[in-house]
Amino acid sequence: MKSQSTIRVRYAETDMMGIVYHGDYVPWLEVARTDLFRQSGLTYRELEEMGYRLPLLGLNLQFKQPAHYDDEITVEVRLKQKPTFRFRLDYVLTRGSDLIAEASTEHVFVDHSGRPTRPPEVFKKLIAEVFPD
Fold first, then answer.
1. Whole-Å CA distances, 52 to 46, 63, 81
2. Would you say 108 and 125 are in contact if contact means Cβ atoms under 8 Å apart?
3. Strands (DSSP E) found in the chain
């Protein structure tokens, strides 16, 4: 299960040297993550309407090269392992053939009260198609 999103670096995301501020990479991961769900047929909005949330449990981000103003960055996100309550997504950020950064995020399904819960049936069916037993 994977998806690709394209981000054009905005001026507001850079410092005085024209290099992307490290904190601005995190929203790019969110863009890719929501695109992955949308392209798989299940949007974050639909999950929320069903009473589920996907809080971030962990983030790992390793920078390889700086990104600059007006660069076109491709963010590829992959779900490599069959998820249960928790799941991990892996990201590769590139500018053309140049590796800019690698990242991973870990999430868990929770209900409106913040308690961990099993994923909804629609998510289980989607995962069963991607990761058949």
1. 9, 32, 21
2. no
3. 2-8, 56-63, 72-78, 86-95, 98-108
Q: Strand, coil or helix: what is 81?
A: coil
- For the chain, the maximum distance between any two Cα atoms, rounded to a whole number of angstroms, is 51
61 has which bridge partners? 103
Task: List, for residues 88-127, the tens digit of each pLDDT value.
Answer: 999 999 999 999 999 999 999 999 899 999 998 888 888 8
What is the pLDDT confidence band of residue 15, given thresholds at 50, 70 and 90? Answer: very high
The CATH number of the domain holding residue 54 is 3.10.129.10
pTM of the model: 0.92
Q: How many domains does the chain fold into? A: 1
Rounded CA-CA distance 39/119 in Å is 18
Residues paired with 37 in a beta bridge = none
The tokens 């394209």 sit on which residue? 6
In which domain, by residue range, is 22 found?
2-130
The CA distance from 16 to 68, in Å, is 11
Residue among 128, 133, 101, 122 at smallest CA distance from 43? 122
Name which residue leads in pLDDT, 128 or 31: 31
